[in-house]
Amino acid sequence: MATFQFSVNGRPASVALDNEDTPLLDVLRNELGLMGTRFGCGLEQCGCCMVLIDGAPEKCCAKPVSSIAGKNVTTIEGLGTPDAPHPLQQAFLDEQAGQCGYCLSGILIAAKALLAANPSPTRAEIALALDGNICRCGSHNRILRAVEKAAAVMRGA
Amino acid sequence: MNAPSLPGPLNDNPRLDLWVSFPAPGKVVVNTGRVELGQGVLTAMAQIAADELDVAVARVTVRSGVTDGMPNEGYTAGSQSIQFGGLAMGQACADVRALFIARAAKILACATDELGVRDGAIFRNGAATGQDYWTLAPAIDLSVNASGLARRKASADLRFVGQSSARTDLPGKLFGDGVFIHDMKLAGMKHARVVRQPNKGAAIGTIDEASIRRAAKGAIEFVRSGDFLAIVGNNETAVELAGAASVNHVSWTHVETPTPLQQEANWLLQRPVVDRLLGPPEPSDAQGRQRFEATYSRGYLAHASISPSCGLAQYKDDHLTVWTHCQGVFPLRGALARMLKLKPDAITVHHVQGSGCYGHNGADDAAADAAVVAMQMPGTPIRIRWRREEEFIYEPKSPAMLVKVRALVDSAGKPADWTAEIWSGNHNGRPGGGNALLAGYALPDQEPLPQANEVPEAAGGGATRNADPLYDIASKRIIHHMVTETPVRVSALRGLGAMPNVFALECAIDELAERAAIDPVAYRLSITTDMRARAVIEKVAAMANWQANAPRGNGAGRGIAFARYKNRAAYSAVVVDLEVDEEIRLRHIWCATDGGLIVNPDGAINQLEGGVIQSASWVLKEQVRLDNGTASFDWDSYPVLKFSEVPPIDVALINPTSSDMPLGVGEATAGPTAAAIGNAVSHALGIRLRDLPLTRERIMAALLKD
Question: How much is the pLDDT for B396?
Answer without folding.
Answer: 97
